[in-house]
Amino acid sequence: MATNKKDEFALDDQSISQMAKAMSHPARITIMRILTEHPGYTCGEIVDILPLAQATVSHHLKELHDASLINIMFEGKKSRYEINWDSWTSYSASLTQFLNFVNNQTDNQEG
C-alpha cells in the first residue's frame, strides 16, 4: 500500500500545491475571473456564462471551495459565491515568494 508523505513537506509547499491544483483547470480560472467581476453570483449565473453543464460548474465550485479559494454564502435555497480574499492573498504571496526564489536561482546560475 502506498504511503502518503504529503505531510512531510513544508506547509508553504503544501499550500502552494493545493492552490495550484485547484487552479489547474481553465474553467476554474474563468470562474475566479467571473467572481472577481461579479461577487455573489450563483452557480446558475455562472452556468449562463460558461459553456459547461450545471453539474460540471458545481464540481469546479466545490474544488475551489475545498481549496479555500472561494466562500459560499447561503441565502435560503440559493448559494452565492465570492472569492476568499484572505486565502487568495496568502496564496499569492506564497506563490510569488516561491517564483522569486526560483528566478533568483536561475539568475545566479546564469551570472
Whole-number average pLDDT?
Answer: 92
Rg calculated over all Cα atoms: 17 Å
**How much helicity do the residues have?**
55-70%
Strand content: 5-15%
Backbone structural class: alpha+beta
**Number of DSSP helices?**
5
Major beta sheet summary = 3 strands, antiparallel
Distance between the termini: 46 Å
Low-pLDDT segments: none
**Strand count:** 3
Order of adjacent strands in the largest pleated sheet: 1-3-2
What letter string, H or E per element, gives the SSE order? Answer: HHEHHEEH
* Shape type: elongated
Walk me through the structure.
The chain is an alpha+beta fold. It contains five helices and three strands. The longest helix has 26 residues, at 85-110. It starts with 10 loop residues before the first helix and ends with a helix.
Layout of helices and strands:
Elements: H1 11-22, H2 26-37, E1 41-42, H3 43-49, H4 54-66, E2 70-75, E3 78-83, H5 85-110
Q: Which terms would index this structure?
A:
63% helix, elongated, alpha+beta, 111 residues, three-stranded antiparallel β-sheet
Short description:
This protein has 111 residues and is α+β, with helices and mostly antiparallel strands. The chain has 5 helices and 3 strands. The protein has helices spanning 11-22, 26-37, 43-49, 54-66, 85-110, and strands at residues 41-42, 70-75, 78-83.
